[in-house]
Design goal:
about 140 residues, alpha+beta, two-stranded antiparallel sheet, about 45% helix
Length: about 140
């Protein structure tokens, strides 16, 4: 070695701040995943609410229909029940077999998800023959 001569040392760049970028990226991924999970949960919740409201509205309309009410009166009752359950009644009407069908709509809490629409039917079950009496019709 000669005096006065220095060895060349490799230049090391500072890696300060590298973990900050990774942390921000990880947080962004978590936020995106949570947003997607919340959107799915909102859609499922709206679907369940719509199903419950449609079922209850159909039962209310069928009860009124079986009691002798006009279709408009039965559907008015169904609409009141649907609104009380946070839904909007989209369609309602009696069917030839004595049942009533309804369609309810519930908006999801997240606007981008859309609304859930569900159909429900309520009324008497199909009639069947009584096994004890020939030709007689029994209630379901």
């Amino acid at each position: 070695m000669t005096a006065g001569r220095r060895r060349s040392q490799p230049v090391i760049r500072s890696e300060r701040g590298g973990m900050t970028i990774l942390a921000v990226a990880a947080i962004a991924v978590v936020v995106v995943l949570l947003t997607g999970a919340l959107a799915v949960a909102s859609a499922v919740h709206a679907s369940h609410r719509a199903r419950a409201a449609a079922d209850l509205a159909a039962l209310a309309a069928a009860t009124r229909w079986q009691a002798g009410a006009l279709p408009g009166e039965a559907c008015s009752q169904a609409s009141a029940v649907a609104v009380a359950n946070g839904a909007e009644l989209m369609a309602c009407g009696p069917v030839a077999d004595g049942s009533v069908t309804v369609e309810a709509r519930v908006a999801a809490r997240w606007p981008a998800v859309g609304a859930a629409r569900v159909k429900a039917r309520a009324g008497p079950g199909p009639l069947k023959e009584c096994p004890t009496r020939t030709g007689a019709v029994c209630a379901p």
